[in-house]
Amino acid sequence: MNIWGLAAIGGLVGLDATSFPQVMVSRPLVAGTLTGLLFGEPAQGAMVGAILEVFDLGILPVGAARYPDSGTATVAAVAAYSLVPLHALDPGVLLLAVIFGLSWEFVTGASTVWLRRLNERLVLSTPRWHGRPGRALERLHLTSMLLDFLRAAMLSVGGALLGALLLKPAAGHWALGSEFAAAALTVAAATVLGALISVFGGWRERWRALLVGLACGSLLLLLR
Fold first, then answer.
1. Positive or negative CA dihedral for 71, 74, 75, 76?
2. How far is CA 100 from CA 27, 74, 107, in A?
3. Per-residue pLDDT of the chain (224 residues; tens, 9 = 90+)
4. What is the DSSP string of 147-195?
5. Which residues are within 8 A (CB) of 93 and not within 5 positions of it... i.e. 6 or more apart?
6. Which of 163, 30, 155 lies closest to 94, judged by CA?
C-alpha cells in the first residue's frame, strides 16, 4: 500500500470538506474514484464511492450542524476494499466495505467535532493580537488547516488498515451469494433515496419524477 499517497489523498479530501478549497473533492463519488486511481482500480473505487454517495445525499453540511466526514471515510473504505485479495470476485466484500465506510463515518465525524473544539481553545489561548493581529490570525488559520489535514490523513490510513483487517476474513467465504449482496445494497439505497423526496419538494411536487424512476427501474430489472 502506498501509505504516503493514501495519506495525501485523505488529507486533501478532509481539507476540502470545510477548510479549503471546497471544490467537491470531498464528495464520496470523487474521493472514491481518486482513491481507486491510487490503487490502479478507478472503476471499483468509483463504484464504492457512488454507493456511499447515495447514503450521504441527505446530509446538508450547513451552519453548526454535526455531520460525518464522509469523504475521508470513503477513502478508507475504498482503500480497505482494494487491499482485500480477490475482492472483485466476492460480492460480499463490496457490501461489507460499504458497511465499514458508513460505520467509519461516525469516527471521522467525531474527529471533526473534536478538531473544532481544539480550534476554539487555540483562539482563546492566543494573546489578544498585540502588534500585528493579521499575522496572528493567519497563523491560527494555517495551523487549523494543518491539523485538519493530519486528522484526515491519519484516519484514512488507519481506517484502511483496520478495514482491510476486518474484510480479509470475508474474502472467499461469503455464503449468502451475490444476489443477497446486490439486493441488500439496492434496497438500502432505494430507501435512502425515497426518504430524500421531502428535500426536493415532497411527493406532491415530485410524484411524476418518482413514477418515471420506478418505471425505469422496473424496466431495467425486466431486461436483466
1. positive
2. 17, 9, 11
3. 689 999 999 999 999 988 888 888 999 999 999 999 999 989 889 989 988 988 888 776 666 667 788 999 999 999 999 988 765 556 778 888 998 999 999 999 999 999 989 988 888 877 665 556 667 778 888 889 999 999 999 999 999 999 999 888 877 666 556 666 666 777 677 767 666 666 666 667 667 777 887 788 778 767 76
4. HHHHHHHHHHHHHHHHHHHHHGGGTT---SHHHHHHHHHHHHHHHHHHH
5. 81, 84, 87, 167, 170, 171, 174
6. 163
